[in-house]
Specification:
Blueprint lengths: L8 H44 L7 E7 L4 E8 L2 E7 L11 E4 L4 E3 L2 E2 L4 H20 L5 E6 L4 E4 L9 E3 L4 H7 L6 H17 L1
Parallel strand pairs: 3-7, 4-8, 7-9
Antiparallel strand pairs: 1-2, 2-3, 4-5, 5-6
Helix pairs in contact: 2-4
């Protein structure tokens, strides 16, 4: 009306098409992010439920411990040792077996290494916890890094047997922990638990 121009539906249709296409892309991207967040939340919850059974044998279980710009999903302090557990949730394939291969340093999906190396991540987290407990207690405790993949079958190679890292389905984790040789006394379990609890309250 102001420019006294004739109606031009083509221009508005093109503009509307661009806006709608961009909005649809943003919505799809947001939905994918929400799906991944839910998947991760459900995976960590499932792992936590498996770990709770270890309390019966005197284990101390901690969830979502804040570090320096990162977090530890789970920590188990048991007579067989201290475990830092990283949960990785992946969507299962529509066809075929949900299987991952662990070669001692990498986790492979369809013979391809995934974007983020979970082994490096959990090893760094274990080192951080080792230093935290050493500075707090004055003692150096061995920490076992563990990566779990809910719903996936893990096939270790021969090289994986010499690795310090465990890569497991979370259903197997309580048995692995319970059947490992005792390395900590009940006093050490309680001491490490006490100092880790102090860090959690402070942070």
């Amino acid at each position: 009306w102001y420019m006294q121009a004739p109606p031009s539906p083509l221009v508005y249709a093109v503009a509307a098409g661009i806006v709608c296409s961009y909005s649809a892309w943003k919505v799809r991207k947001a939905l994918k992010k929400v799906k991944n967040i839910k998947l991760g939340r459900d995976g960590e919850k499932a792992v936590g439920q498996f770990l709770e059974s270890l309390r019966e044998s005197g284990a101390k279980i901690f969830h979502d411990i804040q570090g320096e710009k990162f977090n530890l999903d789970h920590v188990v302090i048991h007579s067989s040792g201290i475990y830092v557990i990283e949960t990785k949730t992946l969507s299962k394939p529509n066809r075929g077996e949900a299987k991952l291969v662990f070669d001692g340093s990498r986790v492979l999906k369809n013979n391809t290494e995934m974007d983020r190396n979970a082994i490096i991540q959990v090893t760094a987290a274990s080192g951080w916890l080792r230093e935290l407990l050493q500075s707090s207690t004055g003692h150096k405790f061995p920490i076992r890094p563990v990566v779990v993949y809910p719903g996936w079958f893990i096939q270790p190679t021969i090289e994986a047997k010499s690795s310090d890292v465990w890569v497991l389905n979370p259903k197997a984790l309580p048995a692995f922990i319970s059947n490992s040789k005792a390395t900590l006394s009940s006093e050490q379990v309680n001491m490490c638990s006490h100092h880790l609890s102090k860090h959690i309250r402070a942070s």
